Here is the input.
Amino acid sequence: MLGTEVEVSVQGTTGWRAARIDRRVLAEIERLEQVLSAYRPGSELERFKRGEVARVSAELSAVLALALEWQQRSAGTFTTSSGVLTALWQEAARLGQPPSTDALADAVDRAASPGYALIDGVAVRSGDCTGLNLNAFAKGWIVDRALGLERLRSRSTTVAVNAGGDLACAGPQPTLVSIENPLRPYDNEPPITRIALRDAAIATSGRSRRGVRVGSTWYSHIIDPRTALPVDHTASISVVAPDAATADVVATIAGVLAPQDAVERVTELGFAAFVVSPNGGVLSNEAWAALEQRVPAAGAP
Here is the structure.
């Protein structure tokens, strides 16, 4: 689902009750995927981009409104039209050479335009929506809504939903989250750190598993909308926020900044941050330190 693996974990109940929670959560994710998926040509989002939706649903309008709000708040570090940037570098990979200066400038201009506007709270197309891409936002939003089905249902059950690095949890028990070492992304590699979450969410963005090869050079999939250039100064960034949609978009915004600037920006917004630089150095803030758990050394019990 959502172009990635989705995992639902349940603490505090077992058997048919746990199975029922799992089914409800996955059913809601599948329903919302029909609205917001960029991987399904028939989703409402994709039909909206093609101009085939007469009136946008309340759910799609809500996501488009939030994404537009974050684009306006981000000072250019987040765009709703990231598909323009991705397509630029996919074409570069096909041709085997980086984009020209003119192509980069054109992509920056196109990415700055959302291609839609809000009229009385309803999203309407106002231009070219070809590059509209909500992948850095919609996945977290869907996780939040799926988890919301289980909030307050039981005071003893903890539910966590993890969709490819966007994880949200709700309930009385802490959920332990391990952070992968982006410089050694192997299944048998111990985590670089881990944290305990309770009624919160985390999003991690890194360059180790995704990107493009242009000629002999590997480029990150994280692209700065201000320059249309891939970012190479951050190996990964993790952000903890009250909900997955916020964690997702803040990780995207901070992910194009230099490590120290990224941590400062996330701190200003009031969230926890953990950044790994390309040389293996780590930076974090006090909010992250309050969540961190000791990771045993290799071979320790």
Observations:
- Residues 15-36 form the longest helix (22 residues).
- The domain at 174-295 is CATH 3.10.520.10 (T-fold).
